[in-house]
Amino acid sequence: MSRVDEALAKSLSAETTELIPYLSYLLQDLWELGSTPEDMIYLLSRNIQVSEATRILDLACGKGAVSIKLAKTFGCKIKGIDIMPEFIEYARNKSIEFGVDSLCEFMVEDINQSIETEHGYDIVILGAVGHVLGNQEETLTKLSKVIKSDGYVLLDDGYAMSIPFSNYLTKKQWIETINKTGYQFIDERLVNELDFSEMLEFQIISITKRVNELKIVYPSYAELFDQYLESQMAECDELENDVEGVTLLLRKL
Q1: Sequence-distant (≥ 6) Cβ neighbours of residue 245 within 8 angstroms
Q2: What is the DSSP string of 4-65?
Q3: pLDDT (tens digit, 9 = 90+) per residue, 166-223?
Q4: In Å, how far from its chain's centre is CA 115?
Q5: By C-alpha distance, which of 33, 41, 11, 47 is closest to 152?
Q6: Its pTM surpasses 0.70
Q7: Residue 247 in contact with residue 174, Cβ under 8 Å?
Q8: What sections of the chain are H helices per DSSP?
């Protein structure tokens, strides 16, 4: 089991690397994988002058929904990086469909490598990928390497509703971590509960459909697919009842 495979499975909430060959099929109906582009557009529009000269790095970009919609809205250049070749191919095709292929560059790479080689960006985005780069403190410290002084981080995560809770921090703990790692809290966008519930419901319906299809083709892996579905349902339940989804905008001091 390679570190790259482990990072991939973790980023897509798969409990085992055995699922990797099937993840693209399981998630084929979902373009926005976790992050909501509109929330990020809202935060940028309110707080930053984004122009054609703005350089943005979208780490773990998935199928490129955030990158493409930001490029379409602001006319800025964005580099998206994801470990899934199928996702990157999808993102490239979508950028052509949206007419922003000249603004968007997509590449396949483990973002743990990317943070060591990518530098000088105005904004870095990390959307809903859990602890692929480490815990919250480690993640913010690593992200600071790729942005300029006074650069910004857009982070899709959540506030725990109680202490302690899973891998999430309360808002107070988040503020403490932000200050400790050399950032300034600029703004936040809490999820719309109704929209979020509808999105989670669609996600489960879509994955359930694909799980059932795979079980017919690969019956010996039925238990593996069912476990993945159960883990997705448990995660959605956690997000809906115990965590308040939030997109954070931070500035590097």
Answers
A1: 156, 157, 158, 190, 191, 196, 239
A2: HHHHHHHHTT-SSGGGHHHHHHHTTT-SS-S--HHHHHHHHHHH----TT-EEEEET-TTSH
A3: 688 999 999 999 999 999 999 999 987 767 788 888 999 999 999 999 999 999 999 9
A4: 15
A5: 47
A6: yes
A7: no
A8: 3-11, 20-26, 37-47, 65-74, 85-97, 111-117, 136-143, 171-180, 193-217, 222-241
Say how far apart CA 211 and CA 220 lie, in whole Å: 13
pLDDT > 70 fraction of the chain, expressed in percent and rounded: 92
Length of the chain in residues, anyone?
253
Residue 72, Cα to own-chain centre: how many angstroms?
A: 19
Which sign, positive or negative, has the C-alpha torsion 36, 38, 39, 43? positive
Task: Kindly state the helix (H) or strand (E) to which residue 119 belongs, with its residue range.
Answer: none
Whether CATH 3.40.50.150 fits 35-192+244-252: yes
Distance CA 140, CA 147 (A): 11
Distance (Å) of CA 130 to CA 100, 228, 251: 28, 16, 21
The closest alpha carbon to 238, from 156, 135, 163, 165, belongs to: 165
Is residue 60 within 8 Å of residue 11, measured between CB atoms? yes
Kindly list the domain boundaries of the chain, sorted by start residue: 35-192+244-252
What value does the mean pLDDT take over residues 235-245?
A: 81
